[in-house]
Specification:
Length: about 525
């Protein structure tokens, strides 16, 4: 059963293969979960004793869908799952789900009622505000219903006003419509030319003016010319090779234009990334409680901080561009950030890029790095990448006249030498060691990545049938139903923890080692007999 669960076998297929009833399967999942949690807790205590002072960890979250338990209310249950993975070994340090099976939502709401929390609209000032209650759910949907009804009424009023104007002016009759509708023969040659050519010419002239204005005197507008290319004369010249970016990344702008420009790169600009986004197409679980996403994120980072122990000399957090994750990361390790022992790198990349676009960008970065390595044959390849990127970044920031710490904390800087998994990678250092030397900054930009945690989520979906993403049916609008998804939210937490142990201690990679072996937490692979055998 353990092997079938970790190899994407649905529960119905497990019942068919093993001949077990569904109740027996659920009982055995509970037994495997308890056994795995016992072994994992022992390894976590050993992790706290691991003599390691420097860490780089990657944190991201994914959303999992639970099928609606009743046909009378066809709204899915969406639960978030937050994971933190050690960058070099791929070891899953923590994996937490947005569900608490031990807390009853109705009893919790009664506790809030007794404490007067339901009268306090600001959740941060409540005595109890950890999980979602039906009162929270109704309070979120009520404004949405008001806005929807207001929008529908606005449309009805606009249609009624338009009909009233047509009736008052006598326009819009069938006779007028017959007169106004003509054929191509009624349009003369001059009118036809004016109809098709004039707007096009004006549009092209406006576009040319914008391009001329944007690229006017590039040496003055930008510290580097984006049209410069690498050739033999450039490689062997005394001057350093040109910057490897294809587009200008360090525009000089006045304070007024900077204040007027909208903040499109902010994590809060995307409403879909807002914490606890709830609408009428989603519902709360019937059993247990759904934890608020901000509580989950803060608790997750506090757990990671405790797990790594007090002997941290330097730690780099790589997080997704999610405002909640960034705030929780900085708050949970505020003492490390204040002492410059921690830094937070916000990593973004082009998830929507096609495979051909990714390969083209990787090939371009490789060609640029090869050219720089030819100019510096005595240096290792990674050192060349750090030197080139660090020097270009330093000169670019100096040309803008900005303070180093402010610029790195406010701008998404593209990294040119990308891998195919993170094409278009950009990094923003929002807190921490922003005043360190340039080789360290360049190394941080090179190593910062979300690929380890993204790979964990990918394997979760590929190896556990209930974690697979469902499809959107056109007939159901945005509602998603997956035939292999679970109906019980507790299975998300149980299967997630089982997978964490399986991935860390039992799943070997191409190097024939498990993540725990790479981290130095285990000397060999854990087998099934070690999990279920007598100890």
């Amino acid at each position: 059963m353990f092997s079938l669960l970790m190899n994407k076998s649905p529960l119905s297929r497990i019942a068919e293969v093993t001949g077990l009833s569904f109740q027996t399967i659920y009982d055995k999942i509970d037994f495997i979960y308890r056994r795995v949690m016992q072994l994992q807790s022992e390894r976590d205590r050993e992790l706290e004793q691991l003599s390691r002072s420097r860490w780089m960890v990657c944190t991201d979250r994914q959303d999992l869908t639970i099928n609606w338990p009743s046909r009378t209310r066809r709204a899915t249950i969406q639960l978030a799952q937050v994971a933190t993975v050690e960058r070099s070994s791929g070891f899953i340090l923590a994996l937490h789900s947005q569900f608490d099976a031990q807390t009853d939502a109705a009893a919790y709401e009664a506790l809030m009622q007794a404490a007067g929390d339901l009268d306090e609209p600001r959740r941060a000032f409540r005595t109890h505000g950890r999980v979602w209650t039906q009162d929270d759910y109704r309070s979120v949907l009520a404004p949405q219903d008001v806005r929807r009804r207001a929008a529908e009424q606005l449309i009805r009023d606009a249609v009624a006003a338009a009909e009233a104007r047509l009736n008052a002016s006598g326009e819009g009759s069938e006779d007028d419509a017959d007169i106004e509708v003509g054929t191509d023969e009624n349009i003369g040659p001059h009118e036809e030319d004016m109809f098709y050519e004039c707007p096009t010419i004006a549009g092209e002239a406006a576009i040319d003016a914008l391009i001329d204005d944007f690229y006017r005197s590039p040496d003055e507008e930008f510290p580097f010319d984006p049209d410069r290319t690498i050739d033999a004369d450039t490689i062997f010249a005394d001057e350093p090779p040109p910057r490897p970016w294809r587009t200008p990344s360090f525009p000089q702008q006045s304070d007024a234009s900077a204040e007027a420009a909208p903040d499109t790169g902010s994590a809060a600009a995307d409403p879909e990334e807002a914490a606890d986004a709830m609408d009428a197409d989603r519902q709360l679980p019937a059993r247990g409680s759904m934890v608020h996403i901000d509580i989950l994120q803060y608790a997750h980072f506090l757990y990671v901080r405790r797990l790594l122990g007090p002997s941290i000399e330097k730690i780099t957090f790589c997080v997704d561009n999610d405002a909640g994750l960034i705030a929780a990361c900085v708050a949970a390790s505020a003492d490390l950030f204040s002492s410059r022992a921690a830094e937070c790198a916000v990593v973004t990349f082009r998830k929507e890029a096609t495979i051909d676009e990714k390969r083209a960008e990787v090939a371009e970065g490789k060609a640029l790095l090869d050219a720089h390595c030819a100019a510096m044959p005595l240096f290792p390849r990674l050192m060349v990448a750090d030197l080139v990127f660090g020097n270009d970044l330093r000169r670019g920031i100096a040309a803008t006249g900005a303070v180093q710490e402010d610029y790195l904390g406010e701008n998404d800087v593209p990294y040119p030498f990308v891998s195919i998994t993170e094409a278009g990678k950009k990094i923003r250092l929002v807190a921490g060691g922003l005043t360190m030397d340039w080789p360290r900054i360049a190394k941080t930009y090179r190593r910062a990545s979300l690929h380890p945690v993204d790979r964990v989520f990918m394997l979760c979906r590929r190896r556990i049938s209930g974690f697979e993403r469902g499809f959107v049916s056109p007939r159901r609008g945005r509602r998603i139903w997956n035939q292999y998804a679970y109906y019980d939210p507790t299975q998300i937490e149980k299967l997630g923890q089982i997978f964490r142990f399986y991935y860390n201690f039992m799943l070997r990679g191409e190097d024939k080692r498990t993540p725990a072996m790479r981290l130095g937490l285990a000397r060999g692979q854990v087998y099934m007999r070690d999990v279920f055998g007598d100890r």
